[in-house]
Amino acid sequence: MIELLKQLCILDGTSGDEGAVREFVISQIKDHCEYKIDNLGNIIAFKKGKKEPSKKVLIDAHLDEVGLIITHIEESGFLRFKTVGGIDTAALMFRRVLVNGKTLGVIGGKPVHLCEGDERKKLPDADNLYIDIGVSSADEAKALVSVGDCAVMCSDFISCGDKVLTKALDDRVGCLVLIDLLKQDAEYDFYASFSTQEEVGLRGAKVAAFAVEPDAAIVIDGTTAADVAGVAAAKQVCRQGEGAVVSFMDGATSYDREYYNAALNSGIKAQSKCAVAGGNNAGVIHLSRGGVRTVALSVPCRYIHTANSVCDMRDVIAVRDLSKHMIEQIASGKL
Asked: Cα–Cα distance between 236 and 228 in angstroms, integer?
């Protein structure tokens, strides 16, 4: 699974520009299921199982990652940008970036030794940063880059034992789980959506859920693991190596209590997400049409939404196994 995760994570897919990731996913699933692409670029797949389900189940993961979009090219050749999705300024400062898949640059700002007073004590606003692509004029820049081009933070892919460090684990870990499930034999029919634009407002999943009309949904995502130095145990949210993370509530969804309890008591390694914060595609899926019973299963990721996020492959496998278990329990009518 690590090699497939590497192939997924090294691809660039800022929200609204997920084409490269979409094409790779299709190359992996096309011989194992039926699929179609909708008008927002979602992949909606149907996996034929050995039995017809008593409930229609949708399992979802999102294709997109956080990134940047170029908004202005200055006469000096510097590029101004806006963030696409939630990125802390600390994760951007002096970071190498790749614009439009081919042009390297570095995010610059006012040097600290030129800052005065309170400027030295706080991070600059993202609006005061720029991308330096090594040119000296707007004309040189425009030969390489256009307004509206997307950029991602450059990253390596490093594995050490069970740990993986790379960009875009949110949510390529979810895409990995869905691909793996679609490649396996299924006990019951189910639908899978690889959705777009999650990081900018849960947009693709809203459309996918409306089209599929599921009775139940399982949302797979990466979530913040704060099990790091200096964070009190009560605020660590979840811990790596402790299995799948099951949410009871977040900023967008209050989850189905029966599904939540069933996931935690499945016998597969799992933990509660001990925070009510953030949100994921469940926020729109559970409100689709007449309502959809929903559970969220997440992979704990340290340093999420940076170029150097970290996950534990044992947790990824736990999410995969628990997802399969929940599909079968729901589709069979046991839940």
From this structure: 8
Tell me how long the chain is: 335
**Number of Cβ within a 10 Å radius of residue 43:** 26
- Token pair in block for residue 246: 């099951």
User: Residues 50-73: pLDDT tens digits?
Assistant: 999 999 999 999 999 999 999 999
Cβ-based neighbour number of residue 51 at 10 Å: 12
Residue 243, Ramachandran bin (φ over 0: left; ψ between -120 and 50: alpha; else beta): left
291 Ramachandran zone, left/alpha/beta (phi>0; psi -120 to 50): left
Q: Which domains does the chain have, with CATH numbers?
A: 2-65+167-331 (3.40.630.10), 67-153 (2.40.30.40)
User: Which residues belong to the active site?
Assistant: 198
Q: Are strands 309-312 and 79-84 parallel, antiparallel or unpaired?
A: unpaired
H/E element holding 260?
Answer: helix 257-264
Rounded to 5°, angle at Cα 65 from 244 and 21: 95
pLDDT tens for 78-120 read 999 999 999 999 899 899 999 999 999 999 976 555 555 665 6
β-strand pairing of 216-224 with 293-301:
parallel
Which amino acid is residue 32, in one-letter code?
H
Closest CA to 330 of 175, 183, 189: 189
Distance CA 43, CA 196 (A): 9
3-state secondary structure of 224: strand
Q: Which of 109, 107, 82 is nearest to 95 (CA)?
A: 107
DSSP 267-333: SS-EEE--------THHHHTTSTT--EEEEEEEEEBTTTSTTEEEEHHHHHHHHHHHHHHHHHHHTT
